[in-house]
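Lab notebook: predicted structure, single chain.

Context: the supervisor wants predicted structures on file for every construct in the current expression panel, including those that have not yet been purified. This is the next one on the list. No modifications to the sequence; it matches the entry in the shared construct table.
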Amino acid sequence: MSPILRKMRHSDLTPLAELRHITFFGDGKFPQEADMAGLAKLIDSDGFEVGFVAEIDDTLAGSCLFVREEIEQLHHVSPWLAGLVVAEAYRGRGLGSALVEAVEKHARSVGSDELYLYTDSAEALYAKLGWVVVERMDIEGEALVLMKRKL
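Prediction complete. Output recorded below exactly as produced.
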């Protein structure tokens, strides 16, 4: 079945937080409950910030967020594409690219003419989608790449 891309809902919080925990927060430094609370605030926000999910056969397969702020040290740049994640079983089907496109479309619809992201491992994917490297940096001992896309 084809994936369905839609805005995140409260019913997505548990499976999404579980997927994000496995992918991003397995070190235990950020509790799953805190992530769920942050995602819930995003759902209930003013509509500028938004989360998108991809589902296949009623199963949450991935997600990507559009947020005002991301890395504290880089609050001077905004807005951000953040938290792109696709469950391992659904990788290689173009879901990541589709989720990025959904965030870019939303960003344009709210008047943004550029978008930022950071990555530690997906620079090639984003470059293929038209993103360019702005800076290579070290944040708290982690090598990250700051990227930008003109919309």
